[in-house]
Amino acid sequence: MPEAPAGTLYRGREGMWTWVAHRVTGFLIFFFLLVHVLDTSLVRVDPEAYNAVIGTYKNPIMGLGEAGLVAAIVFHALNGVRVMLVDFWSKGTRYQRQLLWGVIVVFVILMAGFLPVQLGHIFGGE
Amino acid sequence: MATTSPTLAAPRSPRRSGRGTTRGNLELYGWVFMRVSGALLIVLVFTHLFMNLVVGDGVKAIDFGFVAGKWADPVWQVWDLLILWLAMIHGTNGMRTIINDYATRTGTRLTLTGLLYLAFTVIVVLGTLVIFTFDPCPPGAPADVLASFCTAG
Fold first, then answer.
1. Mutating which of A30, A62, A76 best tests the B interface, going by the most B Cβ atoms within 10 A?
2. How many C-beta atoms lie closer than 10 Å to residue B135's C-beta?
3. SS3 assignment, position B91
4. Phi, then psi, of A70 in degrees rounded to 5
5. What is the pLDDT of residues A82-97, one digit of tens each?
6. Complex confidence, ipTM
């Protein structure tokens, strides 16, 4: 029987930390969504104002931020599939730890495909 | 002896306290919505990211003309509208859960939830209006920022 630290119900390990990561990524994505709707709304105000603001998304620092955003979305999406399997697949709870490893493997594959493309776009020549 | 024995409800029978018995199934519908919208958003958002960040020059290609070209097609208008509504309801419900977990004082919880619903309303109304009132070729705009189909012919 693994010992839980005194005074807490949290059990640690894959299940809890995945839950924490799902919550943190969801929180961050929500605030990006608010900003993203606001910046896109500038197309309705003035084309040049929109181009000026969207231009800031193209500098290297923001480009790395976009890579982080995509990583957060990909993790949240894949872990969402894991949550649905735990909920609806009869063996989901038994294999929830293995499902996390599945999430990590698919995450690494997708990010290995995306990151070189994104870095090429933001650091590549005009 | 038998006449004095109290009547006990059978185990697991629904509680009938007279208050709070008809809470409804709103939380159940919210739970189902998180899963249905989440599954749809995987397809909608992954396609959105692929079209805008991967294809061609990625983020470097995004400007007014790019948006005008996409929203000239009703398919992408509806696509983005679906993302807007599903993601905002999904995200707002998630934020509501987080607020309910950590904001233990009633005043704090009601204030944060009120701000959340205000943000939801503003963003959804604004985004919907922008998608449907968008003019890809606004009069008076300089030609070099417009999509090529505005100036052609």
1. A30
2. 13
3. helix
4. -60, -40
5. 999 999 999 988 998 9
6. 0.88
